[in-house]
Design a protein that fits this description.
It is globular and about 60 Å long. It contains 25 helices and 15 strands. Helices cover 46% and strands 11% of the residues. The structure holds adenosine-5'-triphosphate (ATP). Residues 186-202 have a biased composition (Polar residues). InterPro entries: DEAD/DEAH_box_helicase_dom, DEAD/DEAH_RhlB, DEAD_box_RNA_helicase, Helicase_ATP-bd, Helicase_C-like, P-loop_NTPase, RNA-helicase_DEAD-box_CS. Residues 1-10, 17-36, 45-62 have a biased composition (Basic and acidic residues).
């Protein structure tokens, strides 16, 4: 890309810049090289020839000189680019496929050709066509100004040019191939849906349904899907649908699976059953399932299988997979689980996160990390200082995906993904328990035709076409809400702790959530002064303190942990009996994640939430969650109102129309 661009720049210099000054200098140089005899003769000849021969000669020399200067210019620029790649993370962004083509086209030419195309269209114009012309051009502008964004644009996008056209041709070929080789299947394999050809699907090259799966009867498959409210939505009818893997025996035989990595579990959880086939088949996945439902293993198995396949069993040092987590503790926990699988097949999994020694992590990376689990900030650091290279990381997971795609992490994620192979060349998986509409269009720009797998009520066949994924809490969690005066909170916490840690329950683990760091400090001090064995975890603590508090809580040394939302997502702490929300979180999604620290892996849980006048903006959303989980809704809460304020789109506000951006636009051509 750079070479082409530089050459073009130099071509422009060649034709525009008059070589006069250089020629004079070069003339005198050439004169010096001549013998004195020749000099006179040459001078005569020069005078006679005036502007002909010698001008040619000087031009030749000057061209040589220019070439030389071009070369050095090129070298300089290449060097600068190299330096950028190391120093500035944006350098990696330049390598985003697609931006290559943007860069290789001179902007003037581009504009001209767009103008031409526009004017052609406007010749056959009517109002609609004009509007369409604008629509066609608009995304191009975005692409030019924001090359970091891997924007999914309509096929008719003119300025996307060759790249997209090539892609769409490829897509067509691919889908034709798929049509021929795979059994055509319905768009949605809904809970109560049916599969074509008695559900027998010819699997893709990397995943073949085992005979055990094929042998399942259609009613058995349907019953399993509807019992667990499983919906798998394929973006195109041409893609294969797969039957769920309802037993570990139904998994294919591989080096990893032959080592029985799931011996401790009885059967796959619904999200594992439904998503493993697609993950193993190399598909991009959006997986949405309740808290504590085994999503980590849902992505860990296809991850390790993909890395093994890509390494060919030989090169185990290259980083081939990256899993991004929003918090350090979650990254460490995920690392533990993935490492278990990796160690069975001789792969290294390395965890990199902030607040810990960079040198140790660098050393671990140097030794070879086939899989990397990371928090965004530290990962970006290593990318920019060359400590890690992700150009072969063709398997990418965004865990707690909605958090990773919200405003706080959006730019980091864009940067990280632009260092990985292009989305066409990588497999991208996103897993979460909550999938708000606000992040869905951004998610689609990082994926290719993901299959959307949702587990839960309200996401059945009827909802398959909609982009909405119903927000719901884990049904096994008993949710209680106490409307309370702000000033009475601390005493109430103390009362509740006494109640739920009385007698035989004295060591029961209770997680107390606060909204602010200072509030967490205050509540912790208040409780410890009253003899409660309590620790805390929040952003104002050093990483060692955070790790120590969490460990003490896990081991039951301090059965009460006061936390901010750093502990709201993903943490799998065994036997948390009660979650106590002292202050309501900022979003209803955070509420679902917080209470999800209890009632994990099929167990029952309990959550008590203190709700005050200050939280009334959340009453409608909370009432909906309670009702959907068949929980009691206190009258005092209903008094705050049931209205749910529509969440506005980040850029377009509350009136943004919810459309499925993963759907391709229809191509309209004008003669
Ligand atoms: N097939 C299984 N059978 C029983 N338990 C399982 C199974 N798979 C995973 N688990 C256990 O379930 C617990 C929760 O798993 P995990 O942490 O992956 O949940 P999650 O869906 O990612 O939760 P969250 O949404 O809170 O991040 C873990 O202790 C894990 O070991």
């Amino acid at each position: 890309m750079t070479t082409q661009k530089h050459l073009r720049d130099e071509e422009i210099v060649d034709t525009v810049e008059p070589p006069r000054k250089k020629s004079k200098k070069l003339e005198s140089n050439s004169e010096r090289t001549n013998s004195k005899k020749d000099k006179k003769h040459k001078e005569k000849r020069e005078k006679a020839a005036v502007d002909t021969e010698d001008r040619d000669a000087t031009e030749k020399v000057s061209k040589k000189d220019k070439k030389k200067s071009k070369k050095s210019k090129k070298e300089k620029k290449a060097k600068a680019d190299d330096e950028e790649a190391v120093d500035a993370p944006e350098a990696a962004v330049k390598e985003v496929p697609g931006s290559e083509e943007q860069g290789s086209e001179a902007p003037k030419e581009k504009k001209k050709s767009r103008k031409d195309k526009k004017s052609k269209k406007f010749k056959v114009t009517d109002a609609e066509q004009q509007v369409d012309g604008e629509m066609v051009d608009a995304p191009a502008e975005i692409l030019e100004t924001e090359p970091t964004t891997e924007t999914v644009t309509p096929e008719s996008n003119v300025a996307d040019g060759a790249v997209k056209e090539k892609k769409s041709k490829k897509d067509k070929k691919k889908s034709k191939k798929e049509k021929n080789s795979k059994t055509s299947s319905p768009d949605t394999q809904a809970a109560n849906g049916t599969q074509s050809n008695n559900g027998l699907v010819t699997a893709s090259s990397s995943y073949t349904e085992t005979n055990a799966v094929r042998a399942l009867s259609e009613p058995d498959v349907s019953t399993f899907l509807s019992k667990h409210n499983i919906t798998a939505t394929n973006p195109k009818p041409s893609y294969a649908t797969y039957r769920p893997i309802i037993s570990f025996d139904h998994l294919p035989s591989t080096t990893l699976l032959n080592k029985s990595p799931f011996a401790e579990y009885k059967e796959p959880t619904p999200i594992q059953a439904a998503s493993w086939p697609y993950g193993l088949a190399g598909r991009d996945i959006i997986g949405v399932a309740e808290t504590g439902s085994g999503k980590t293993m849902a992505f860990a198995l296809p991850c390790v299988e993909a890395v093994l396949a890509a390494s060919g069993g030989k090169d185990r040092k290259t980083t081939r997979a990256v899993i991004v987590s929003p918090t350090r503790e979650l990254a460490m926990q995920t690392n533990e689980q993935v490492s278990k699988l990796c160690s069975l097949v001789g792969l290294n999994c390395v965890c990199i996160y902030g607040g810990a020694s960079k040198d140790d992590q660098r050393y671990a990376l140097r030794k070879g990390a086939a899989v990397v689990v990371a928090t965004p900030g530290r990962l970006k650091d290593f990318i920019s200082d060359g400590g890690i290279t992700l150009d072969k990381a063709a398997f990418v997971v965004l865990d707690e995906a909605d958090r990773m795609l919200d405003k706080g992490f959006e730019e980091d994620i864009k940067e990280i993904l632009s260092s990985c192979p292009a989305k066409e060349k990588r497999q991208t998986l996103m897993f979460t328990a909550t999938w708000p509409f606000s992040v869905q269009s951004l998610a689609s720009t990082f994926m290719i035709d993901p299959v959307k797998i949702t587990i839960g009520r309200g996401n059945g066949a009827d909802a398959s076409d909609s982009a909405e994924v119903k927000l719901q809490a884990n049904d096994r969690i008993k949710q209680e809400v106490e409307v309370i005066d702000q000033r009475a909170k601390e005493q109430r916490v103390l009362q509740l702790l006494k109640k739920y840690q009385s007698g035989a329950k004295k060591d029961d683990r209770i997680l107390v959530f606060c909204l602010y760091k200072k509030e967490a400090v205050r509540v912790e001090n208040f409780l410890s002064q009253r003899g409660v064995r309590v620790g805390s975890i929040h952003g104002d603590l050093k990483q060692e303190q955070r790790t120590r508090s969490l460990e003490a809580f896990k081991q039951g040394k301090t059965p009460v942990l006061v936390a901010t939302d750093v502990a709201a997502r993903g943490l799998d702490i065994p036997e948390v009996k009660l979650v106590l929300n002292v202050t309501f979180p900022l979003t209803i999604e955070d509420y679902v994640h917080r209470i999800g620290r209890t009632g994990r892996a099929g167990k029952d849980g309990h959550a008590i939430t203190m709700f005050t006048e200050h939280d009334k903006a959340h009453s409608g959303e909370l009432i909906n969650i309670l009702k959907a989980s068949k929980q009691a809704v206190p009258d005092e809460l209903l008094k705050f109102g049931t209205t749910v304020k529509r969440k506005g789109h980040d850029a377009y506000g509350a009136f943004f129309k919810a459309v499925d951006t993963t759907k391709r636009a229809t191509k309209i051509t004008f003669d």
